[in-house]
């Protein structure tokens, strides 16, 4: 009977910590359906105007 009591007390001592860790790990997984359930309104950054300097920089860096 003493071993059962010790095992149950050690289990009860570890249980709050295990529940906290489980909650921290499960929170992002449970939050995904809430985020995807919105009305489709997304905030996007304005698109940058292309100036064509990327290819010129790439070529000039390769030559150096």
UniProtKB/TrEMBL annotation:
It comes from the Bacteria. This is Uncharacterized protein. The lineage of its organism: Bacteria, Pseudomonadati, Pseudomonadota, Alphaproteobacteria, Hyphomicrobiales.
């Amino acid at each position: 009977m003493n071993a059962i009591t010790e095992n149950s007390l050690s289990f009860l001592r570890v249980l709050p910590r295990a529940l906290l860790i489980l909650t921290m790990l499960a929170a992002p997984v449970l939050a995904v359906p809430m985020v995807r359930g919105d009305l489709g309104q997304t905030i996007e950054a304005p698109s940058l105007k292309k100036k064509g300097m990327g290819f010129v920089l790439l070529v000039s860096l390769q030559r150096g």
